Structures are given as C-alpha cells and as structure tokens.
Task: inverse folding
C-alpha cells in the first residue's frame, strides 16, 4: 500500500468515499467562492432591497452598470487603472535596475542596501500613514504638494522590497558565463543586459508583475490620504460613498464592487503559475 | 572579477531610484512621525514642543487601550483561525489529481480579491435582519437571526470571520508547499511499521510542517496589529467603539480630529509593539528549534 498524501484520501476508492469527497469539495467551493459568485449574480440583478444578495439569477439586467456611470464609477475605475498602470511600470523598472546592481555588481555598502530593503518590508505602510500625509503635502527639499495628484498615489508604491528581492534572487541564478560569452563577442553591458539577462528573467518579471499589480490595485490607505477630491478617487475607496442610494438600492455598489474585484481575479487566473511561485518564494525565504 | 570604480558607480546609479523612493516615502515619514510625536502639531500656529505629553495622552486614553485589546484579539483570532482552517484545507486538498488542482485554485480566490470590495460584499451578507444572506442560511438550520456587525458583542467576531475566510486559503497554499516537501519514504516506512493515519499525521506530517507554521505565524503577527481596511469598511470601529482597532483610532485622531502629534505618537507605539511582537515570535521559534 502506498501513501502519497498525509491523510491518504486519494487512495480511498469505492462509491461511498467518492460521494464523501465530492460533498466535501463542493462545500469548500460554496464557502470560498460562493460570496464572489453571489456578487457576480447580484450585480446583474435588480436589487432595490438593500439586504438582497442573491445567488439565483432571476431577471438579468445591465441597469446597475448604467446607473454606475451616473455615479462616476467609470471615472474611479479609470483613476485606478492610471495609478496601477504607471505605478506598476515604475515599480518594475525600479526593481529590475536595483536587482541587477544587487545580483551582478560587487561594491562596498551592499549589505547595508540589503538591510535597508529588508527594513522597508518590516515597516508596514499603516504605521507611517499620518506622517506620510505630511510628507506628501510638502515633499522635503523639492517642496511639491502631491495631495490630489496621481503622482502622490504612484510614487510611494514605486519601490517595493518584495519585488526587488524576488528579482535579485532570480538574476543571481542566470549563469554569468552567458554574459561573459556575450562580452567576448563584443556586446556592451547595456546590450548584454537587454538581449541576454532580461529575456532570461521573463518568469521573474511575470511574478513581480502579477504581485505588483494586486499590491497596487489593493491600495486603500494611500489613496485615502492622497485623494481628497472625489475626482481623484480610486475605485476601492469610492465604494464607501456608493453604499446607500434611494433610487437604485445597492445595485451600483454591487456593480462597482464587481469592477473593483475583477482585475486582480483575472490577473490571478491568467498568471496562476507565477503567482504560486512568488507566493512560496516570498513566504518561505522571508 | 575585480570591483572597478566604474562598476561601483554604475551599481549606485542603478540603486538610486529605489533608494530615493524608499527615503522619501518610508524613512523620512518614519523619522517625521517620531519627531512630530513630541510636538503639539498646529498647522498655522507652528508646532509646540510638548515632550512626552502625547505619549502620556495616548497611553492613558481608554479608547486607545480598548483599541489595543481589540487589535490583539482580532490578530490572535484571525491568525489562529486561518492557521487551523488552512491546515485542515491543505490536508484535505493535498494530492496530484487534476480536479484537486481546480479546487485549490477556486478556494484560493478570496486571497487575491480586493479587500475593500470583498468587505462590502460581507457587509451585505452580514445584514442583521431575517433577510440577510447569512441569517437566511442560519434559518435553514434553525438558528435565530444574529445581529453580526450591528451588535457590540459580535462586531469583532464578525470581522474575524471574514478575515479567516480570506486568510485561510493563503495559509493553505503555504502548507501545501510544505506538504509537497515531505519525504514520501517516511510514510511508506510508517505503513510497514503498522502506523495508523493518526500516528502518521502526528509523528511525521505535523513535525515536518513546523517551520512553515512559524513562518506563517510571524507574518500574521506582523500583519495582525496593523489591520485597517476591513475594520474601516465593515464597521469603522462601531458600534459604540466595540470594534475600534489601533489603526482606525489613529486614522480618526489624525484626519478627523487633526491631533497629528497624538496620532504620530500612536503610530510610534504601534511600530514598537510590532517590533517587540516580531522579536518575541523569533525568540520563541529559536527556543523551539533547540
């Protein structure tokens, strides 16, 4: 007899065991995806009753999404995309640059830089929220005010320790011989970087891309501090203001919630393998 | 490879964007928070040095003490619940079969959802009337409608419920990664020796998962104390302060009551608490390993 799993569930055959397993897994699916499925259905239903959250579609309608337009939901969605688009671009470029230096260069102060990176990961955003709002209102030395600007929501997420460390680990594993070979063939450092190293790092780019996306998309406190004017709200922080509406009930809220949820769910489903890899590397290695 | 001066310059140039961003949006705010915590901050009149007064104010504030208690309870409950449920799920969904891969991916979905949106969904499901979704389900098994978020006695537990729902699948995935790493010959050897499933679980599986357990525990401890979004969206600390946590209180102090000095002091206290907690967990882990 072979035991491949701790409980040995897989090894149990027979109709009773099969039914048991089926019920078990079905229950798991209901508990963990039920609320999300309910949101999907309800967002397309007429829901005047503020308590109504339905799992059974009756009359499907796009009314909620039409009403959402009047409540500026699509503007908030656009804001979210602007922030996540430029924020992610900045974050990935910054991470790749820093990782290349950490993985390939040897210089004095490297341990210090690594310590700084780790320190930023131990320092939760929430703790610095209050002083960060003061800094954003008047950047030291530059004296720019980033309150109610996109930059105020983009720059603070531009550098992320997790991305840099994941990228560094990966770049270290790219064999140095490849670079040396390219150099012997006469390629400069820049060319080697773009034609040899970066293409080889594509899997890691996927990891930091999908994690960076969900990280920035899920930002709440930062836009809450930065965006005072509703014209700069991102979708997650706008949800609160959509709660009660006499005419449409919670329909608009549900439609907006669905729109806020979908992008990260789609990103996860599309990049599942990268996601799992980043998850274990991030959690196990520190 | 010798380190050339040019190489060093290039390295710092490449690191400059990251370091500058960290300096501006992490380290300067941290230092500023510490600095402002010693002042009565007045936007137009100029700041006034008050020494440790802000700390005295916040440490003797009953609301703050309550918030610390709620944060701790929420952190412990969420961590414990997620770990237990996550381990259970991992053990049940372990295996190479194709349909298990599907179940894993589906169960994992709550982790990647946007907190603010998912909290709105739970707020609606938690509706206290008979017609609320969860109360309807409770009705099927003959349990009276619960007030959930609307009652002082259950608001914190309701938040915890949602957090476990969102946290358990994450722990499950990490446990699964740990389960894959267990040496299969151990299971076979145990089977030859006539060990039951319970023995196998107790003497092989769980000890092998211990490092994973500590990693998850440390992460959860750091994250637990600073919980904000879910409380802000679900109850905003209510009803009657029964679910107020450290961060919602600091947020209110800073942005609604404009007590920036006191709020900064609160931030410093929270930082110190997180640091101490992390160190304690690390120490416990060292001792366990010995």
Result:
């Amino acid at each position: 007899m072979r035991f491949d799993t701790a409980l040995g569930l897989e090894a149990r055959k027979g109709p009773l065991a099969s039914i048991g397993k089926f019920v078990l897994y079905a229950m798991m699916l209901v508990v963990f995806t039920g609320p999300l499925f309910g949101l999907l259905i309800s967002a397309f239903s007429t829901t005047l009753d503020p308590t109504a959250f339905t799992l059974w579609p009756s009359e499907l309608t796009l009314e909620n999404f039409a009403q959402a337009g009047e409540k500026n939901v699509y503007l908030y969605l656009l804001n979210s995309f602007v922030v996540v688009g430029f924020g992610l671009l900045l974050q990935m470029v910054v991470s790749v640059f820093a990782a290349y230096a950490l993985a390939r260069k040897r210089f004095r102060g490297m341990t210090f830089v690594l310590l700084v990176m780790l320190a930023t990961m131990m320092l939760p955003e929430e703790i610095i929220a209050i002083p960060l709002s003061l800094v954003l209102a008047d950047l030291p030395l530059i004296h720019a005010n980033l309150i109610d600007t996109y930059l105020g929501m983009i720059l603070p997420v531009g550098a992320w320790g997790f991305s840099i460390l994941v990228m560094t680990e990966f770049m270290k594993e790219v064999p140095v011989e490849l670079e040396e070979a390219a150099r012997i063939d006469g390629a400069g450092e820049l060319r080697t970087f773009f034609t040899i190293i970066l293409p080889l790092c594509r899997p890691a780019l996927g990891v930091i891309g999908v994690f960076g996306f969900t990280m920035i998309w899920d930002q709440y406190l930062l836009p809450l501090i930065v965006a005072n004017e509703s014209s700069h709200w991102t979708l997650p922080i706008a949800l609160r203001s959509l709660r009660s509406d006499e005419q449409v009930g919670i329909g608009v809220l549900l439609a907006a919630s669905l729109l806020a949820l979908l992008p990260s769910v789609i990103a996860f489903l599309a990049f599942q393998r990268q996601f799992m890899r980043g998850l274990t590397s991030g959690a196990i290695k520190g | 490879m010798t380190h050339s001066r040019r190489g060093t310059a290039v390295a710092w140039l490449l690191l400059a964007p990251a370091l500058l961003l960290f300096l501006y949006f992490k380290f300067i705010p941290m230092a500023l928070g510490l600095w402002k915590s010693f002042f009565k901050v007045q936007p137009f009149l100029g700041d006034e040095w008050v020494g440790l007064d802000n700390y005295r104010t916040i440490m003797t504030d009953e609301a703050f003490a309550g918030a610390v208690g709620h944060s701790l309870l929420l952190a412990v409950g969420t961590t414990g619940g997620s770990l237990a449920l996550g381990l259970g799920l991992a053990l049940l969904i372990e295996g190479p079969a194709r349909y298990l891969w599907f179940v894993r991916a589906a169960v994992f979905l709550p982790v990647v959802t946007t907190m603010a949106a998912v909290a709105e969904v739970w707020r609606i499901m938690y509706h206290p009337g008979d017609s609320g979704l969860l109360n309807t389900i409770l009705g099927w098994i003959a349990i009276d409608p619960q007030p959930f978020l609307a009652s002082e006695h259950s608001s914190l537990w309701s938040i915890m419920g949602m957090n476990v729902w969102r946290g358990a699948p994450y722990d499950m995935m990490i446990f699964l990664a740990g389960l894959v790493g267990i040496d299969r010959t151990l299971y076979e050897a145990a089977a030859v020796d006539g060990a039951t499933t319970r023995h196998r679980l107790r003497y092989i599986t769980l000890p092998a998962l211990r490092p994973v357990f500590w990693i998850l525990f440390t992460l959860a401890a750091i994250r637990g104390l600073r919980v904000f979004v879910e409380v802000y969206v679900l109850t905003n600390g209510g009803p009657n302060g029964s679910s107020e946590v450290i961060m919602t209180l600091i947020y209110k102090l800073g942005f609604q009551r404009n007590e920036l000095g006191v709020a900064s002091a609160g931030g410093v206290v929270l930082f110190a608490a997180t640091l101490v907690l992390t160190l304690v967990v690390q120490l416990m882990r060292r001792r366990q390993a010995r």
